[in-house]
Amino acid sequence: MSKIKMTVRTPRIDMTPMVDLFMLLLTFFMLTTTFRPSEAVQVDTPNSISEKTAPDKNVITIFISKDNKVFFNVDEGTDTSQHIRRQVLKSISEHFRIPFTEEQVAKFEKLASFGMPVKNIPAWIDAEQKQRDEMQVGMPYDSVDNQLALWVLFARNANPNAEAAIKGDAEADYKVVKRVLDILQDYKINKFNLTTNLEKVEVKLEN
Dihedral of the CA atoms 201, 193, 134, 76 (nearest 10)? Predict the structure, then answer.
């Protein structure tokens, strides 16, 4: 009696569901991803020996360009439902008596750092990106018109958990950095981060 040979079948994996899943995920990410708005100024930060990482959320960031202009930013924190940037802009609006439409407030929440007198903020919000870049002339921070101090105060009131970070250019004047530090300390912000680049510097004993 002859033996019955069993048909050997090669295992086959149907990849069609995986392709469908990949396309579904790709479509989801394309529809939900938002591009991060560009910063007001490009800052060439100095090197550092520190390996501490600055926080990504709950940060009040002050930028100092190489031509000693100052720019400001505050994020929405870990809970975006608090609308921190909206609260800060509302306080600025009430203090300077500058009205903002609901559309302008909504746009402001999505923008990044800025540096200009408060009176120019409405026009900056409504402008196109190229025009916005041209309007970045630096925020007043001298003793006569210290608008930077007010932005820091209102940002701190809106988010008491926010940490301060100074991102200064390597060629910025130290006097400007000292002035910014004084403003932070005037509002009891004695803990802050000095942002540097990722390149680590080896410090030798003779230095």
Answer: 130
Count of the separate structural domains present in the chain: 1
The per-residue pLDDT for 130 is 86
| Ramachandran assignment for 75, one of left (phi > 0), alpha (psi -120 to 50 degrees), beta (any other) | beta
Q: Could you tell me if 156 and 62 are in contact, meaning their C-beta atoms sit under 8 angstroms apart?
A: no
Whole-structure pTM value: 0.74
The vertex-110 CA angle with 106 and 113, nearest 5°, equals 120
Instruction: Give residue-wise pLDDT tens across range 94-128.
Output: 999 999 999 999 999 999 899 999 999 999 999 99
Domain membership flag for residue 27:
no
Q: Decide if 109 is inside a domain.
A: yes
Sign of CA dihedral 60, 43, 65, 131: negative
**Sheet with 192-194, edge to edge strand ranges:** 70-74, 59-64, 163-168, 192-194
